[in-house]
Each structure stands twice: as C-alpha cells, then as structure tokens.
C-alpha cells in the first residue's frame, strides 16, 4: 500500500535560501521512504525520476550513418547504449551520442531514404505547475494499523551557502575603510580588503550602476572570505569602519533577492548590499 502527497511551497523564497544543487530544480522531485515509521521520524530519500520519450523521424537520404538532433529532454548521463532505435522491421544500431548537442548518430546502412524510425529514450520530466515535489510513503504489502503514535516522516534540507558582497560609497577619499564582524568567540565573518571601483568592472553590474549614480564619490567592494550559511536570524555585529573608527553599526544584511556576479567572484551565488556614507554615520541604503 502506498500513500502519495504533493508538496507546495508556502514561502516563495524557499528555493533562494535552500541548497537544491543535488536535486536539480528543473526536474520533478520524488521523495520515498526506505522503511516504515514506528513512531520515530523516518527520513525520506530523494530518488531519481525519469519517464520515457519517443520521437519519430523520417530519414532524409540514403546513408551509412545519419545524425539526428533530438527535440526532447534526454535524461542526464545517457550513453549511446541507452537509446533504442526501431526502423522498418528491425532495430538500428546507435553509433554515438553527444549529450551537449543532443545529437544521436545511428547506423542507417540497412535503411532507406523516407523510412520512418522511432527513437526511444529516458527523459527528465518537468515538475507539475505549482508542485515542488511528490512524496510517496510505501507500506509494502502490509496495511498500516491504527496505533497510539502517528507515523512520522521527514525531508531534510540544507541551507544555502552564499558569498556576501558589500558595496560602499563614501565622500572621504582619505584613510582606510574596513568591514568587521564582531561575532562571539571569534565566529564572525571575515571580509576581504576593499577593492577599488574607481574604474568599474564592466562584468560587475552593481559597480557600473554605482559609477553612473555616484561618479564623484569613492566606491569600493568588500567580499566575505567564506560563504555565509542562510539563517532566519540577522547578523547584528557587522560594522563599517574608517581608520578603525566605527561609522555604521550594524550594517544591514544583504537581502535574499540581491544577487550579483563579477569577475573573480567566488563560485556560486553572491548576495550584495549597497552602503552609503556621505556626511554622517548611520546612513545606509539597501541594494
């Protein structure tokens, strides 16, 4: 006996702060149990989900081999041997498969121009509209009984780890700016020395926009030296300093939807926050 459920996201930002690099967001997700709950939580495991697709193609000409570009969405990791090609009255051999180009080369020495061949392969299904994932609880041949404790099942997700970047705009060209995190027990974030943006990196859209908005002010970028794990609580100990004097305390945390990239940026996503210090402290603006 099986019970099926559909998961819908109530928080539209879930995919922003959750690491979904293992279960690709383009695929339909399915979670299943490997054992039956006895009242203790049982973790549900992500399992690959594929379906089958078929494409019919008319051979354009007599040839020893024919290269065909697939129109569908072949599953990742397919090899030439994973395809079946059926011609009139017999199967045709597959010579090679280029996954990047979705190009299949088949042996058509025994076929003729105008013959219709049918190509069958595994495909990755798209998720249904508004459905994040499916959950299947399998009790096998047993019928679940009514007991004092409910069956408990859970899906464990990992929080995303994202690099933080602070863009600072100031009207003081002299002295040294720095960003410091006074985290307890030395657990604060470490930030790089400032990168001058006086000549903005054309690959950095935030630096380019700030150069247009503040052409006469000093502009710089600070980047966290390690990815920052997403969490509900705000980090309230990050400061902007000038010549070791605190200018802004605390700095606002980058918003989840403030994504950017730039030359030399660490791999993965980067969140940013724009901070301005012009004439007085405690003046800041979000990106």
How much of the residues is beta strand, in percent?
A: 35-45%
Derived structural class = mainly beta
Radius of gyration: 28 Å
**Contiguous helical run count:** 2
Poorly predicted tracts of residues: none
H/E series: EHEEEEEEEEEEEEEEHEEEEEE
- What count of structural domains? 3
- Give the termini separation: 52 Å
Which key features would you list for this structure?
single chain; 287 residues; mainly beta; Immunoglobulin-like; 3 domains; six-stranded mixed sheet; five-stranded mixed sheet; 2 helices; 37% strand
Layout of helices and strands:
Elements: E1 2-7, H1 14-17, E2 29-33, E3 42-47, E4 51-58, E5 65-69, E6 84-87, E7 90-92, E8 94-98, E9 103-107, E10 116-123, E11 133-138, E12 153-154, E13 161-170, E14 177-181, E15 195-196, H2 205-213, E16 218-223, E17 228-229, E18 238-242, E19 245-248, E20 259-260, E21 270-277
Parallel strand pairs: 2-11, 3-12, 13-21
Antiparallel strand pairs: 1-11, 2-3, 4-10, 5-9, 6-7, 6-10, 8-9, 13-16, 13-17, 14-18, 15-16, 18-19, 20-21
